[in-house]
Amino acid sequence: MIAEADGTIRSNSYPSKYPVLGTPPATPWTIDLTGLDGRFWFAAFDLDAKTPEDFDQAAEDLGVLVRILRDASLPHVVCRSSPTGGFHVWVPLAGVDKATMVQLAAAAKAVLPSLDHGLLCNDRTGAVRPPLTPHARGGASEVMAGADNVDVLRTPTVTAGDLLRVTAALRELRPAVDPAHSSPTGPVDTRHRAHRSLPAWGEAHMATVAGGRDPSRTGYLCLLAAAVSGWTLADVEHAAKTAPGMEHYRTRNGPAGGREPRTAAEAAARLERQWTKAQDRAVLYRYAPEERAQRDLTELTGIVDVVEGVLQAFTASPGRWTRTEADLHDSTVLTYLAWLSLRTGSRDVAAALRSVAIATGVPSSTVDRSFRRLHEAGWIIRCRQADGPHAAVWRLSDRFSTPGDHVGPLHKVTARPPAELFDVRVTLLEVLEDRLDAGRHDVFTRAGLGPTARRTYESLTTAENAPEVVADRAGLPRGRARAALVRLRRHALAIASPAGWRRRLHDFRTHVAKQLGVTGILRRREQQYVDERDLWAWWQNHLIRKAGRRGRDRTPTTQVVMFRTVDDHGGPEAYPVYPCSSDGRGDHQAAMRFVRLGLLQDLRDRELAA
After folding, report:
1. Integer Rg of the chain from CA
2. In degrees, to the nearest 5, what angle opens at C-alpha 357 toward C-alphas 352 and 358?
3. What are phi and psi of 408, to 5 degrees?
4. Could you read off the pLDDT of 468-481 as tens digits, one per residue?
5. Structure-derived torsion over alpha carbons of residues 404, 311, 65, 88, reported in degrees to the nearest 10
6. pLDDT tens by residue, 27-64
7. Beta strands 77-80; 500-503: pairing state
8. Distance CA 192, CA 567 (A)
9. What are the Cα distances from residue 229, in Å, to 201, 224, 289, 557?
10. 195 CB-contact burial (10 Å; exposed 0-12 / middle 13-18 / buried 19+)
11. Over 50: is that where the pLDDT of 600 sits?
């Protein structure tokens, strides 16, 4: 870096070359990760930590990474990269090809959220400040205890085979697409019992001794299982005191190794933040279909390519997706379809209007119009019309995955290895789920801050980003994005600093929704959809009975069943007689009142009593 006339470094660039031999520069400097032949001589794991929340996550990721490197007996150096936080983990390489580094980067990104994975496979401009070099904001990169001495970087011995072993170890920790298929990352205490019921996979994670090899991920899965099971914050606070799998909320990874206790305030704040995130993710989990077993990876490769094309289209063609409120809704529905296809591993996905509405926070009538617009424009293809209880089946158009022009022989085109494909799939799922979770809230409904503010908030992270970066990520014109950022800051949903804009660590969306008077809109809308489904099922049962056949039973009720006798229609779980007018026509208004008041079981009990 070059200092200006007053001795201050203001530009984050390294324009000046410096000789290898001699005294190192006084200003910050970097070294290239590759040689002139494009082969890597260093693997630099950059764990970013620009905020206190990020630092805690980076410290957890550091613990996971160091354990893997130690188990593989690979030399490595750990540095505190700057006084503001973050870590660099250096591994000396004996000239490794880019293909191996790409696999390592994809596997590491799927497991380590704080990792800047691009540095691991950037063979053109990849450069990092080595140990002991100064930082632009003061201080220097410090070598931390618990790893090898910096001299191991002078004698590279790590080969491509060694890195493939690290890649395999990272893939063992890769999050499962469906949490129900995830396995504990360590031994399980069979004596532990949760004080409330959990799904089987949740009980296994809750009993994982010391959180296993990835305590942060294990703790989050415990919260997700609790959210799916209807636990409250008081329940998870009680479990966090003693549950082996929730070690992450009692202790944190120590810089020099081992774990150290958290303060009571820090532990409570972190648990509450993660609990909010788990509750948001549980909405998607409840409405997610079963993951399909992959027999042919060609189809999954196509799905991954299409989803990458969808995300690229939102930024490369912003005019199509952000001009009007309808465009913003179209992109939200398209995001959900991409997530649905990627999660199920199927190109053709059934998407019921009300399920899409609940998962996205967009009204079902608006979802229907978005489906029609996207279909007419050729962005999605309808494979099957809705038929009775079966939802319409949709497919993302191949327009999103148009291959680029290839120059040179086709035999030099390398397909993604299967394991790397699954790594990329997990990373893309996390991106899509974060978008849907961030935007699905009362505060971003039309009566609240609206869809433009939603899109801008979805594009923010906990790390600072320049307004131009946020605008590009949101696919919005820069002036419109700046106005939305100012509005978010006015409502305490975004923070501005000299380095850029970021989300608040504490989720204030519910607080702002109360101020705007929009609290409960999505919950009431979801209940309305549930009531409409119950009414429709009751009416279909009535039509079946009129045809002279026995109707279906209802979903087992949670109400007290007063009578256990049976009649011509069945037992207590059968539907009661549908209310009809004197001319035999169904009285749907009266039926809806019974549904909303939860009186179907009471009506059935009266019939059986009579």
Report:
1. 28
2. 105
3. 115, 180
4. 999 998 989 889 99
5. 80
6. 888 889 998 888 999 999 999 876 666 788 888 899 99
7. unpaired
8. 46
9. 12, 9, 17, 17
10. exposed
11. yes
